[in-house]
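Example 9 (inverse folding). The structure is encoded as follows.
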C-alpha cells in the first residue's frame, strides 16, 4: 500500500492537501462551534488552541498522516485526515475530521468518506478504520450509516485535552467490503 497525497474531488466536496493558504479559513470554521471542541475532541482547534493544533497538523510533516482541507463553496470549511498509515500491514485510519456546522447533515461527510475510502483502497489498503469518541453519538451514527462495521470499544483509551478519559469506538471497512459500501454511499449521494 502506498497512499498518494493528492486532491480528491466530486460534485459535493473537494479535499485538498492541507496548505498554508487554508489556515485562516480553517480557523474561522473551527471557531463556528466552540462548544464542540470542549466536549468531543481529544484536542482543540478553537481560539488560543488553533495555532498549536495547526502546528501539529501542518508544520510537522508526518509520513503516517495526510491532512486534507475540506473545501466547500470555494473555501476551507473543515479538515479530515488519513492517520496511522501503515504500508506494511496495508491499513489506514480515517479521522481527525471536523466540519463547520453548516456542512453537517448534508452530502459533504458521505462524499468525503467515499473519496477517502476509494482512494485508500485504490492505493492498496486492506483495511480502513475509524476511531470515534464513545460520547460522540452523531459521529458514531454517521460511521455506521456509511456501512462500516463496529468492532468494539477501547475502554479508557485516551486522555483528551480537557483531561477527560475517553472510551474509543473502533469501526472498519475491509477491502472485500468496499464494493458494497461504495454502492451504498453512491445510492445515498444520488438519492436513490
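The amino acid assigned to each position is listed next.
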Amino acid at each position: 500500500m502506498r497512499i498518494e497525497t493528492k486532491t480528491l474531488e466530486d460534485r459535493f466536496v473537494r479535499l485538498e492537501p492541507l496548505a498554508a493558504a487554508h489556515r485562516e479559513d480553517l480557523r474561522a470554521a473551527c471557531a463556528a462551534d466552540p462548544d464542540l471542541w470542549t466536549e468531543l475532541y481529544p484536542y482543540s482547534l478553537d481560539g488560543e488552541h488553533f495555532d498549536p493544533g495547526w502546528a501539529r497538523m501542518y508544520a510537522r510533516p508526518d509520513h503516517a498522516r495526510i491532512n486534507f482541507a475540506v473545501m466547500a463553496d470555494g473555501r476551507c470549511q473543515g479538515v479530515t485526515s488519513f492517520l496511522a498509515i501503515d504500508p506494511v500491514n496495508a491499513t489506514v485510519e480515517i479521522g481527525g475530521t471536523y466540519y463547520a456546522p453548516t456542512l453537517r447533515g448534508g452530502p459533504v461527510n458521505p462524499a468525503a468518506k467515499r473519496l477517502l475510502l476509494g482512494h485508500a483502497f485504490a492505493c492498496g489498503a486492506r483495511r480502513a478504520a475509524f476511531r470515534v469518541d464513545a460520547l460522540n453519538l452523531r459521529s458514531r451514527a454517521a460511521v455506521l450509516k456509511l456501512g462500516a462495521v463496529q468492532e468494539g470499544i477501547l475502554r479508557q483509551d485516551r486522555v483528551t485535552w480537557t483531561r477527560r478519559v475517553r472510551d474509543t469506538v473502533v469501526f472498519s471497512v475491509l477491502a472485500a467490503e468496499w464494493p458494497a459500501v461504495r454502492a451504498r454511499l453512491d445510492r445515498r449521494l444520488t438519492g436513490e
